Structure to design on (187 residues):
C-alpha cells in the first residue's frame, strides 16, 4: 500500500464516520426546530389573545389603596341589653388628605332582616361625620363613598378612628350578624 491508498482509505473512513454522526445528530436538530416552532406559535397566539381582550386605552380599573382591616369583620349584634353595636378601627393619627374615598364589601347573615349601617370617621380634633348605607344585601356587595361626603370633617390630616355600627332603630330583627371585608382607602 502506498501513501495515496492510505490517504484514500483514511478519507473514506473519516467521511463515513462524519456522515454517520451527522445522521445521528440530525433528529435532535429536527426535534429542537419543532419545539421552537411550537413555542413561537404558542407565544404568538397568547399575544394575539391578550391584545384582542385587553382594554383599549386606560379603561382598566386600577386603584391604589390602603387596607384598613386585614381580614373580615363580624359584627354580631344583640339589642336586648344594648342599643348599638360598634366596630372601630384606630387610625393612629393617619393623614388621609391624599385619599379620595373609602370602600368596603358588606353582607348580612339573615336574609329576612333589614339592616342599615352607620359608617363614621373621627378626627383628632373631635370632628365626626357619618354616612348611612341602607338595605344591606344577603350577598357580598361593594360600597364606595367619597370622603368629601363626610361633611363634618374639615381637616383629614390627623384622623383618629373609622367605625361601623349597627343601631337598634336601623334593623328589623333584634339579633343578627353583619360581615364587612376589604375595608380600604382609595386614592
Amino acid at each position: 500500500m502506498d501513501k495515496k491508498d492510505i490517504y484514500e482509505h483514511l478519507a473514506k473512513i473519516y467521511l463515513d464516520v462524519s456522515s454517520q454522526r451527522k445522521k445521528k445528530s440530525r433528529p435532535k436538530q429536527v426535534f429542537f426546530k419543532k419545539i421552537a416552532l411550537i413555542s413561537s406559535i404558542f407565544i404568538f397566539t397568547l399575544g394575539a389573545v391578550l391584545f384582542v381582550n385587553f382594554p383599549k386605552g386606560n379603561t382598566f380599573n386600577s386603584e391604589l389603596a390602603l387596607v384598613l382591616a386585614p381580614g373580615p369583620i363580624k359584627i354580631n349584634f344583640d339589642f336586648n341589653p344594648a342599643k348599638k353595636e360598634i366596630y372601630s378601627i384606630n387610625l393612629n393619627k393617619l393623614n388621609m388628605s391624599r385619599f379620595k374615598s373609602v370602600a368596603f364589601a358588606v353582607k348580612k347573615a339573615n336574609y329576612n332582616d333589614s339592616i342599615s349601617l352607620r359608617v363614621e370617621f373621627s378626627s383628632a380634633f373631635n370632628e365626626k361625620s357619618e354616612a348611612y348605607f341602607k338595605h344591606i344585601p344577603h350577598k357580598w356587595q361593594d360600597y364606595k363613598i367619597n370622603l368629601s361626603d363626610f361633611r363634618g370633617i374639615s381637616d383629614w390630616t390627623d384622623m383618629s378612628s373609622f367605625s361601623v355600627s349597627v343601631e337598634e332603630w336601623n334593623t328589623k330583627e333584634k339579633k343578627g350578624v353583619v360581615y364587612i371585608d376589604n375595608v380600604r382607602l382609595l386614592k
In short: The first strand starts at residue 65 and ends at 67.
